Prior knowledge:
The structure is a single chain. This protein is an alpha+beta fold. The chain has twelve helices and 13 strands. A six-stranded mixed beta sheet has the order 5-4-6-3-1-13, sandwiched between helices. A four-stranded antiparallel beta sheet has the order 10-11-9-12. A three-stranded antiparallel beta sheet has the order 2-7-8, with helices on both faces. It is globular, with a radius of gyration of 21 Å. The structure holds 2-deoxy-2-fluoro-alpha-D-galactopyranose. 2-deoxy-2-fluoro-alpha-D-galactopyranose binds at residues 42, 46-47, 49-50, 189-190, 192-193, 240, 352-353. This is Galactokinase.
Amino acid sequence: PVRLHDGPPARPEETAKQVAAAFEEAYGLQPAGVWRAPGRVNLIGEHTDYNDGLVLPMALPWGVSLALAPTDDGVVEARSAQRPGEPVRFAPAGLDARAPSVTGWAAYVAGVFWALREEGHLADDALGARILLDSDLPVGAALSSSAALECAVLLALVDALGLSGLAADQRAMVRLAQSAENRFVGAPTGILDQSASLRCKEGHALFLDCRSEGARNVPLPLEEAGLRLLIIDTRVEHKHTESGYGDRREECERAARALGVPALRDVEDLAGALQRLDDPVLRRRVQHVVTEIHRVNAVVGLLRAGRTAEIGAVFNGSHLSLRDQFEVSCPELDVAVDTAARKGARGARMTGGGFGGSAIALVAEDRLEAVCAGVAAAFAERRWKAPDFRVAVPAAGARRVDW
Ligand code: GAF
């Protein structure tokens, strides 16, 4: 039998207690608190966020837990349980986005300090911090480990420093975390991941309009419908800083300019728009974005009507569109999706940016074992790395965790 990844995730309170103890041991002082920000899967609405479109993510029970204490020595020292013996130090007042001196995982930490200073929230040059973090999210699996890290740092600072204006404004928090990623780390992402990490609710998906930033928490009663949401991590690492993601974004912007609309969200007559574009590549990109936005509305409609199992068919359509029109899938994602469907999943699709990472499959409880076994066998036949399986439930957004 195929074993699911490590069983259920650790209880956040248990993790918080361990992270606080590790913090005290590393720094010899008490943290001001422990905060936790989750990763996400996007149920539908892929590559629509930077086209001002609609998305429907849910937060995962896996995430980044982080202990923090502010200091007045002007230095941030950060440690990660995943990189023992590698503390990173930087002075927030000396950070420069044009000449980044902090790289790797710590760039996401530094990016948040940089963005807070840039927006005028951290004027004091003497402000520093001690940070210790622990993550149970795989890196490069398209489950949003970077946004979870940014959001954990941001929420911890907002809370520990009493930045009440920001604390009361989730949209501003999202934009700040996005600016850390876009302008400091250099990955041109939209607002999907940070919104999911900060704004999701337990038991719900987040129906987000990326233009107005208005959002609703939509109930997602998977278990009640006898369904499981399976995450298949292909273990092909994806990165947003590499060219594919930026190229797609640029193609969408070019198509919107050619069509004379502010964003592809504004294309009303798809057939007419396709006729007006000469470039077949741009036609494919537009076809995906416009139909994907319709698919988000379709899934929300089905959920509201209590027809939960039927969202699987819409997942299948989304995957084909991402594979053939937007061209961001890869052989491992295609095999995971096709095999899941053949073994009885109600639907499956790649999730996140693509070019590797994870697929999601909606599976009836009694087909779970067969789907996992089928996908594992299909990967083994091709001599690919064994995929990693997790069953996800819609979890809470970022919060302080007391124990
Ligand atoms: C990545 C990005 F970070 C998101 O902003 C979004 O564009 C997604 O890819 C594709 O839907 O996760």
